[in-house]
Amino acid sequence: MNDNEANLQDDERAGLVALAAASVVVGAATGAIGVLFRFALERADAWRNALVAWAHAGHDASIILVVLAATAAAALAAWLVARFAPVAGGSGIPHVEAVLHASVPPAPLVLIPIKFVGGVLAIGAGLALGREGPTVQMGASIAHAIGTSFRRSASDCRVLLAAGAGAGLATAFNAPIAGAVFVLEELMRRFDTRTAVAALGASASAIAMARVLHGDLPDFHVPAQAFPGFETTGLHLVLGALLGLLGAMYSRLTLWTLDIAESIAPPSSVKRATARAAMVGAAVGLLAWFAPQLAGGGDALTERALLGAGTIASVTAMFALRFVLGPLSYAAGTPGGLFAPMLALGAQTGLVFGRVCLDWFPGIAPATGDSATFAVVGMAAFFVAVVRAPVTGIVLVTEMTASFTLLLPMLTACFTAMIVPMLLRVPPIYDSLGERAAKRR
């Protein structure tokens, strides 16, 4: 090795160390913002539930107050987006992917307060949206600002941006490995040393910050599950195929609802975009009055499904309502993600499937465990059917539920859940959303 080669390797090592240090700063900042966002969402959910409970106590014109509150919150969220940061609408993940592909410039820092406040208003109003979309996009914006201030190269800023997005996902679901895998599998779609180091550093520091501020328990509390027997493989393949079909339908419904909403009220018009969100907010307000447990991101519904609560009929009815509410909420154009509502739908489908199997074939109970097994598997399979990121889905659900004994059933179900939408020629949801956004530019 000559002196030039040795100097080049030394420079590469120094650059890698600087990138790793920057990724730790990115993760810590993203973790802090993500936890604050989560605290704000928890308070907003508590206020919404308190308002509905107060209204049900018999106060005059109570239903009108609930509907007006949801309408005003959703409308304000959409107005903030349309007026100050149009790229803050929706999940934000398609925009992050477009930035990484150099199709659009990084979002300005004004996105962070708009995404934060708009997400709290929209999800707090009861829209069926997830917290991960805002934290992913805010993490990407934070990362770009830090990378620029650290005077990193354009390629390192790109890697940091992806790492910040992964840190946002990790913070949203208390899932550090899933955050790093999300960067490699979905955002960058490649594995190299610099990307891996940045992704791991950002996710690790984000979770360290989040756990200091919010605690270190898994998002969902699932009873301990034994390793399912090999004879259940066929059932998990069928469950995966069913969720693959439902996931394809959900993707199509989401895109169709967006097309209808934007044909009526294009996002380029601030007034129409605000009116569109107001109409969705009014519908959600009515739902919150009659069925408050169905409003919001869906974590409570997921928890209930994982605990096996509810009859087959009631869970099926809730699934049907949420299956429509999710795309309708996303069409409002407010900040909010897709993951949390999808996980709830997957858990509900798995619960119903497991109940039916155990009712029809009671002899399989020793091999399958209770219905919570199918609910956990359903979460991963529905995620994979819609997003088409199998490793991220499996790791995410495993970390969220601490169900390490169900890795093989999840892998089996995700296999068919991924194949069915491909056979139906339904592309991954973020690819479709990215193409729609590109056509508007």
TrEMBL record:
SUPFAM superfamilies xrefs: Clc chloride channel (SSF81340)
Membrane topology: Multi-pass membrane protein
MF terms in GO: voltage-gated chloride channel activity
Keyword Transport: yes
Transmembrane segments: 16-41, 62-82, 159-184, 234-253, 273-292, 304-325, 337-354, 374-397, 404-424
Superkingdom field: Bacteria
InterPro entries recorded: Cl-channel_core (IPR014743), ClC (IPR001807)
One cellular-component annotation, GO: plasma membrane
Keyword Transport carried by entry: yes
Classification via CDD domains: EriC
Residue ranges of coiled coil: none
Main location: membrane
Keywords, sorted A to Z: Chloride, Ion transport, Membrane, Transmembrane, Transmembrane helix, Transport
NCBIfam families for this protein: PRK05277.1
Protein name according to UniProt: Voltage-gated ClC-type chloride channel ClcB
Organism: Caballeronia fortuita
